Amino acid sequence: MKRKKTFQILTLLITVSISISAQNRLVIDADRGEGTISRHIYGHFSEHLGHCIYGGYWVGEDSSIPNTRGIRNDVVKALLDIRIPNLRWPGGCFADEYHWMDGIGPRENRPKMINTHWGGVVEDNSFGTHEFLDLCEQLNTEPYISGNVGSGTVEEMSKWIEYITFDGESPMANLRRQNGRNEPWKVKFWGVGNESWGCGGNMTPEFYSDLYRQYATFSRNYGDNRLYKIACGANQADYNWTETLMKNAGRHMQGLSLHYYTVPRNWNDKGSATNFDEEEYFTTIQKTLFMEELITKHSTIMDRYDPQKRIGMIIDEWGTWYNVEPGTNPGFLYQQNTMRDAIVAGINLNIFNAHCDRVQMANLAQTVNVLQAVALTDEEKMVLTPTYWVFYLYKVHQDATLLPVSFTGNKYRQNNREIDAISVSASKDANGKIHITLVNADPSNEQRIETQLQGVSVRNVSGKVLTSDKINDYNTFEQPSTISVKDFKGAILSGSSLSVVLPSKSVVMLEIE
Ligand code: AHR
Questions:
Q1: How far apart are CA 285 and CA 153, in angstroms?
Q2: Cβ partners under 8 Å of residue 121, min gap 6
Q3: Of all atoms in ligand 1, which is nearest to the CA of residue 365?
Q4: Residue 195 bears catalytic tag
Q5: Catalytic one among 317, 325, 380, 478?
Q6: Is the N end or the C end of the chain the one with fewer CB atoms within 10 Å?
Q7: Is the dihedral of CA 90, 93, 95, 98 positive or negative?
Q8: 208 neighbors 232 (Cβ within 8 angstroms)
Q9: Probe target for ligand 1 pocket from 44, 46, 47, 117, with the most ligand atoms within 8 Å of CB
């Protein structure tokens, strides 16, 4: 009898402890800010690659697709709705073979070139400096221009800056006026080369540091235009590159870039965008989580040379990279975008927010029709991807104050591997509203989170959710709303405690007033 009772108590204790350990606990310090999440973390990247520029933005003034001065209206409208803060252009690898003077003046006179990196297609230069800066004005976004170091010259780059930003009498400013633009543009973000360790010239960090200093010296500030010069940074975990650049050229830069792509398999066979099993899904998420380690380790090096965190880490290429869609040009990097991509986007953006003391900008590769695009187009049709909807949900973090979060939670297990099931970020905006973004990477199990909000009295909670039946669901031109944002009803408020049930494979944004 006594033994039976002991057994019952033990069983009860085990059950209680299992249910406690199966809980996710989140504490948010709502009255303690941890710095500003730069809106530029929500930036984008568009290269002369496949149908990103041509077809994605540029259809030409004579097109039957509704456009403003040749730039398609549907894409502009969609991007305005997610408030993209900056746009990087013209590459990528293309930047280091781009000669800007080929892309100005009457379009019919512009020389053609071969886009050797991306499919060997003819680039007719019909989209050049004026068209790009017009696009930025239509998007109400800041331009981020990547200058050519790999096959250009110091003179060519310094003249480009003069052409765009100089207000006085000079050969370049006069040429700009001759081409129809009187006022100079304001351009702040200026990249000095791209992937100079690879497609941008296969340089050593020592050689590039010297070149960077030379190019940066002749990248002038005209009038009140102040360039924020971004040096080419490391490929993934090349910590020696960061060390050398910081040591040799840190004084001359405002930003140092970092590139990291999430590739499920390997560079020869990256895996399909839509046809993958749970094993490959798990690997993708595990690989995307590597971003946390990369930022931490590169930051540690940067901290040694720049403890004041004056130099921004600029993650100007990130996102998923899969095999191209069957039957499409391998050089065009056209891929579909599923709920898996939404999970990847949500996790990365949460990571960037958490490191906003160092990460001052990030640019998803690439905006339209290339890699982890937010929009896909086919002639006059356009569809918004799950990744688009993540940017739509997360725009609330732009320029908000990061709030400290302390989180203990469940694991997502697959065979004998495990990763955190949940990713979280919280911020307070200028109106005092708190926003929490949550990702549940677990494709099969919902997650209950008990949340404590400290330092605020809370009146109301509302939310939005992005989820789908299957992890490889996606939107098509025929069925554009398979994955789209819905109202979220899974949050219950009681005093300063918030109980949230995240559906499996979901991205949720909560607004707390
Ligand atoms: O985004 C596609 C390519 O990836 C870019 O051109 C290059 O910088 C990177 O290797």
A1: 41
A2: 114, 115, 331
A3: 1
A4: yes
A5: 317
A6: N
A7: negative
A8: yes
A9: 47
Residues framing ligand 1 (Cβ under 6 A): 47, 91-93, 194-195, 317, 365-366, 371
Comparing CA positions, the residue from 76, 86, 78, 92 lying closest to residue 40 is: 86
List Cβ neighbours of 352 (8 Å cut-off, separation of 6 or more). Answer: 41, 295, 315, 359, 362
**Which of 97, 183, 195, 206 is the catalytic position?**
195
- Tally Cβ neighbours within 10 Å of residue 378: 12
pLDDT truncated to tens, each residue of the chain (513 aa)? 455 555 455 444 444 443 434 589 999 999 998 899 999 999 999 999 999 999 999 999 999 999 999 999 999 999 999 999 999 999 999 999 999 999 999 999 999 999 999 999 999 999 999 999 999 999 999 999 999 999 999 999 999 999 999 999 999 999 999 999 999 999 999 999 999 999 999 999 999 999 999 999 999 999 999 999 999 999 999 999 999 999 999 999 999 999 999 999 999 999 999 999 999 999 999 999 999 999 999 999 999 999 999 999 999 999 999 999 999 999 999 999 999 999 999 999 999 999 999 999 999 999 999 999 999 999 999 999 999 999 999 999 999 999 999 999 999 999 999 999 999 999 999 999 999 999 999 999 999 999 999 999 899 999 999 999 999 999 999 999 999 999 999 999 998 899 999 999 999 999 999
The dihedral region occupied by 40, where left means phi > 0, alpha psi between -120 and 50, and beta the remainder, is alpha
At 401 the three-state DSSP class reads strand
Q: Which atom of ligand 1 is nearest to 118's Cα?
A: 6
